[in-house]
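Hi support team,

I've been running sequence recovery on a batch of backbones for a student project. Most finish fine, but this one hangs at about 90% for roughly twenty minutes before it completes. I'm not sure whether the input is malformed or the queue is just slow. I've pasted the structure tokens below so you can try to reproduce it. Let me know if you need the job ID as well.

Thanks,
M.K.
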């Protein structure tokens, strides 16, 4: 019979807002429940805070701190959750209707640090995402892969972790509901961003063309020329 050494559950809610142009500030409150060796259980609350910068060149920079104020107690000893400093950078690429995001991350606490690389592949107007990556810690490195599903404001993902040498496999399932329409995923970000800007560009070009046509029509130098090119957008 296999013994599950550790099982964790987390329930959280977050809020983010724009504080200046393309700079955003976010908070997440979470409830964590942990069980060791299927016998000892404990729970706690904690708070995360993040700064995110979304650039016009589709780079995203993230800096944050996790686990403010959380402490956990399995038996008699009370331990505080490690405060993690997080720094990440990711980049979106699009090839017609194909989208790829690649990110690099760094996590650091008092006694632990890790680096990671991850990627997500998606197709425009198709809800399924393919996830994968590699994480290198102090004493253990792990590979992970999984699938994500985005339908309207609901995002569901399931991923599996495999140790590079020895160790136990892990599984992570997450469910997220967005109260506003999400545009942080490659296909949705590019689709909405490009459509909005293309429409604005077409409107500006069309307005400039009409203004120039009127000027040309009533200009003394062009009174005899009433043939105009037609541009259709």
């Amino acid at each position: 019979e296999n013994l599950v050494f550790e099982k964790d559950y987390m329930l959280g809610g977050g809020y983010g807002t724009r504080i200046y142009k393309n700079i955003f500030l976010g908070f997440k409150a979470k409830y964590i429940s942990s069980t060791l060796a299927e016998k000892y259980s404990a729970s706690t609350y904690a708070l995360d805070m993040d700064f995110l910068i979304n650039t016009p060149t589709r780079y995203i920079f993230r800096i944050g701190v996790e686990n403010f104020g959380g402490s956990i107690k399995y038996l008699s000893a009370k331990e505080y959750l490690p405060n993690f400093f997080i720094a990440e950078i990711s980049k979106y690429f699009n090839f017609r209707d194909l989208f790829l995001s690649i990110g690099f991350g760094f996590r650091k606490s008092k006694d632990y640090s890790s680096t990671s690389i991850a990627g997500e592949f998606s197709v425009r107007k198709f809800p399924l995402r393919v996830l994968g990556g590699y994480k290198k810690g102090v004493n253990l490195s792990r590979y992970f892969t999984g699938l994500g599903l985005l339908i309207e404001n609901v995002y569901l993902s399931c991923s599996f972790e495999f140790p590079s040498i020895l160790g136990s496999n892990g599984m992570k399932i997450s469910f997220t509901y967005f109260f506003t329409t999400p545009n942080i995923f490659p296909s949705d970000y590019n689709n909405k961003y490009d459509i909005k800007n293309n429409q604005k560009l077409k409107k500006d070009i069309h307005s400039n063309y009409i203004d120039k046509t009127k000027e040309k029509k009533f200009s003394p130098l062009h009174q005899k020329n009433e043939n105009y090119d037609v541009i259709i957008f």
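--
Follow-up from support: It reproduced on our side and the slowdown came from queue contention, not your input. The radius of gyration is 25 Å. No action needed from you.
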